[in-house]
Amino acid sequence: MSFKLFFLLVKAAGWTLGISLVSIAAGLALAVLLCAAMLSGKALFTVPTRLFVSFFRGVPLLVQLLLIYNLLPFIGINVPSVVAAIIGLSLCTAAYQAENLRGGFESVAPGLVEAADMAGFSARQTFLRIKLPIALRLTFPALVNEAIMILKSSSLVSVVGIVELTRMSQDLASSTYLPIPLFASAGLIYLVICWTMALIGRFSERHLPGALPAGSGASR
Amino acid sequence: MIFDPKVILDHLPEIASGALTTLWIWIVGMLLGAALGFLVATGRRYGGRLLDLPLGLAVEVLRGTPFLIQIFLVYYGGPYVGLSLDPIPCGLIGLTIYAAAYCSEIFRAGFAAVPHGHVEAAECLGLSRFQIVRRILLPEMALIVLPPFVNLAVILLKESAVLSIITVPELTATVSAIGSQQYAFLEAIFVLAVIYWVIVEAAAWTGRMAETRLNKLRFAAP
């Protein structure tokens, strides 16, 4: 396999990376809203959110992508397939991230919240200064994990015709009759991206502001 | 959306056979994957570095690459190395290996969660390695590995939809084929999503039931 083919794969990996990162960011924004709705305690908000989360966690991503890809034009929204794919990935990851965030907020130690109350913090201050930083800190590893999952799942958008890494390797494999080197290289590129993301995740867990010293037990 | 149930109702037998294919590939893949994953986990624990390093690398590679790429490699690359497989066996092998990688990590964490003192006590009593795994490690970790195992089963069921891409006649492939024949693709995909939703929720519910039952057993035991 020539270097030129490999370069084409790397270029296509840019699409994979771009689509995944945009989806993760959009999904996180949506997840915050979903999580707020779930924690609001009002059935008007919690019931539809639960249904949303359950649906997007219970249906294969491939089926979700096919559904959204065909649904959008049907209801009169004509968007490029890349946008449809990003919408699909974002909705799916939002459901998972919302569930993670909810878990994070629920495992903020009640004692810390009580202590903030005793110290005269307002509800807003308690949320901004106590609950939110701890919940974000607790869910950070899960967020990195989710980002890696979405990166791998983004290979499915090849089905709706986006020439990202998987589709590019597929196209090249059928035109060059070199499936083994091409798919192996694509896998290697995925692997490198995943490992880099995991590495960045582990590094920032230790060194970003808000990092917990090992064994501080702030979560309990 | 004008939904004509006839589109689906006329094809119920085909959909049922697709669902059956999905279910058996899923269950067999999961069981074989669990068995293989268990072997990998024990191999990594007792095989020394000579076994631990390559197996660990293989697990990392399988967990770090998309399932789609893995089955493409087997399905399209296989014939070049003398491994021509029909879609169903290829899908089953792919799913098994994928499941085995994740299962081995679950079992590894399970082994690690068994208190070291129990293993040492068994060693002091003169139990062989095989006996320790069978009598101490497995029963003690059964409860610990059940929740992640159910989780993995659900992920695997959803991942099995990907097999439609290499033309395994499972649920996704069957229903979307019906949809395009009937010019009712959207309706078909919608029905497909609901079927998966029901199966996944049922699987998750069964898993939760099993957990409660096992928990009761554990605390009822003398």
From TrEMBL, chain B:
<feature type="transmembrane region" description="Helical">
    <location>
        <begin position="23"/>
        <end position="41"/>
    </location>
</feature>
<feature type="domain" description="ABC transmembrane type-1">
    <location>
        <begin position="19"/>
        <end position="204"/>
    </location>
</feature>
<feature type="transmembrane region" description="Helical">
    <location>
        <begin position="136"/>
        <end position="157"/>
    </location>
</feature>
<keyword id="KW-1133">Transmembrane helix</keyword>
<dbReference type="InterPro" id="IPR043429">
    <property type="entry name" value="ArtM/GltK/GlnP/TcyL/YhdX-like"/>
</dbReference>
<keyword id="KW-0029">Amino-acid transport</keyword>
<dbReference type="InterPro" id="IPR010065">
    <property type="entry name" value="AA_ABC_transptr_permease_3TM"/>
</dbReference>
<keyword id="KW-0813">Transport</keyword>
<feature type="transmembrane region" description="Helical">
    <location>
        <begin position="53"/>
        <end position="75"/>
    </location>
</feature>
<dbReference type="GO" id="GO:0043190">
    <property type="term" value="C:ATP-binding cassette (ABC) transporter complex"/>
</dbReference>
<keyword id="KW-1003">Cell membrane</keyword>
<dbReference type="GO" id="GO:0022857">
    <property type="term" value="F:transmembrane transporter activity"/>
</dbReference>
<keyword id="KW-0812">Transmembrane</keyword>
<dbReference type="GO" id="GO:0006865">
    <property type="term" value="P:amino acid transport"/>
</dbReference>
<dbReference type="InterPro" id="IPR000515">
    <property type="entry name" value="MetI-like"/>
</dbReference>
<feature type="transmembrane region" description="Helical">
    <location>
        <begin position="183"/>
        <end position="206"/>
    </location>
</feature>
<dbReference type="InterPro" id="IPR035906">
    <property type="entry name" value="MetI-like_sf"/>
</dbReference>
<dbReference type="Pfam" id="PF00528">
    <property type="entry name" value="BPD_transp_1"/>
</dbReference>
<keyword id="KW-0472">Membrane</keyword>
<protein>
    <submittedName>
        <fullName>Amino acid ABC transporter</fullName>
    </submittedName>
</protein>
<comment type="similarity">
    <text>Belongs to the binding-protein-dependent transport system permease family. HisMQ subfamily.</text>
</comment>
